């Protein structure tokens, strides 16, 4: 009977690792990655999207990654140019994996699917900065 409990725990640990390091990471960037600085038009679905700041800065595991100096994102409709307001992210918890840091930057609520212009800037000095939408 002990082997059944050990096997169940092993399956639970494996499933958690697959979700945390695989599925969850891809969901954070399901609409792709844009290198910063950028002025791009992308297609986004209706609903809520978390806007993430991503970079390759080397932080110690005891340190909390932070958004690069001067990072800003502007989202507007591709047709008409109406600006879409960004809200505070639902969770400020950063993620570190494979030499990349992903930090929730804002929450974007879109009333309808369509093309949106993404303009992002950052001061010089960041290591491989990107903006992602999840």
Quickly list its features:
134 residues; 6-stranded antiparallel sheet; 10 strands; 4-stranded antiparallel sheet; alpha+beta
Could you give a quick summary of the protein structure above?
This protein is of the alpha+beta class and 134 residues long.
What can you tell me about this protein's structure?
The protein starts with a helix and ends with a strand. The longest helix has 27 residues. It has 134 residues and is α+β, with helices and mostly antiparallel strands. The protein has one domain. It has 1 helix and 10 strands, in the order H-E-E-E-E-E-E-E-E-E-E. The strands form 2 sheets. Strands 1, 3, 6, 7, 8 and 10 form a 6-stranded antiparallel sheet that branches. The chain has a 4-stranded antiparallel sheet with strand order 2-9-4-5, with no helix packed on it. Strand 7 and strand 8 form a beta hairpin. The chain is globular and about 65 Å long. About 4% of the residues have low confidence.
């Amino acid at each position: 009977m002990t082997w059944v409990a050990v096997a169940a725990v092993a399956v639970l640990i494996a499933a958690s690792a697959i979700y945390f390091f695989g599925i969850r990471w891809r969901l954070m960037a399901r609409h792709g990655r844009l290198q910063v600085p950028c002025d791009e038009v992308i297609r986004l679905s209706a609903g809520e999207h978390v806007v993430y700041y991503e970079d390759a800065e080397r932080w110690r595991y005891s340190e909390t990654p932070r958004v690069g100096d001067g990072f800003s994102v502007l989202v507007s409709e591709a047709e008409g140019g109406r600006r879409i307001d960004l809200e505070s992210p639902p969770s400020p918890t950063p993620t570190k994996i494979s030499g990349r840091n992903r930090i929730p930057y804002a929450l974007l609520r879109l009333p309808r699917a369509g093309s949106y212009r993404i303009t992002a800037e950052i001061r010089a000095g960041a290591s491989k900065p990107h903006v992602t939408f999840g």
